[in-house]
Amino acid sequence: MMVSRLKNREQGTGNREQNVHLRVRCVATGAAMMVLLLIAGCRQDMQNQPKIRSQRGSELFADHRGARPQVANTVARGQLREDSYFYTGVIQAADGYREEKNEMPFPVTLDVLKRGQERFNIYCSPCHSRVGNGLGEIVQRGYKPAANYHDQVRLSQPISHYFYVMTHGYGAMPDYSAQLTPVDRWAVAAYIRALQLSQAAKVEDVPSGVPVRSLKEIAQEKHLPEGFAEPWTLPATAVQALPNDMKQGNPALAPTGPADLKITIPQSKPATAAAK
Asked: Is this prediction's pTM over 0.90?
């Protein structure tokens, strides 16, 4: 019995030693494979691959330039702008110059006007106010009033003019092409035209059978501040270089570019008088 027990112990010890040797071999093999992978990954094929970097020369082409000229008459994916008027707001006139049109590139629905109102209130009303008279919040902070959409100049401008200004900016106004997509710019332009019509609307313009309510009544119903429905007044903080003109909407603002601007130059004194 004692002999058999000793043999079993010796066999158990031998098995454990074999298992340890196997584990050591597996670890060594795995480490060797990892080293081989690391060595293979250190090759410079990706770094030294034959490629052309921007603004560098190349021996591949006859002109030794790496940058290749664009292929004529090709358009990048997603940039095929077949309707030029939709994306620019202008057409080429008979004389070759750009010309604005009083025409929308797509039908104006109530949804289009609602979208234009939403975008207008977000991006335009801080300067132009929600009714478009140029008395936005910037005037309360001492800035010059923005363009008044209800003056003679803006009322006579075609609707695509507003799209063009939103695309490229005008005067102190930056462009909003990054904030507004082309379809949104057209929607805002359509809403500006609706604002112009609303400020000059008469009871006779309302279709028969449609009830007409006064603004004062609506203001009281919605618990709006007192004076909400009163005529607009020009804040004392408004800065204007020219005197107000009643033709420029309500309240009367200074014309942006009056056609009859008078420039007076004081007469200089005669040379003899100046010498004295």
From this structure: no
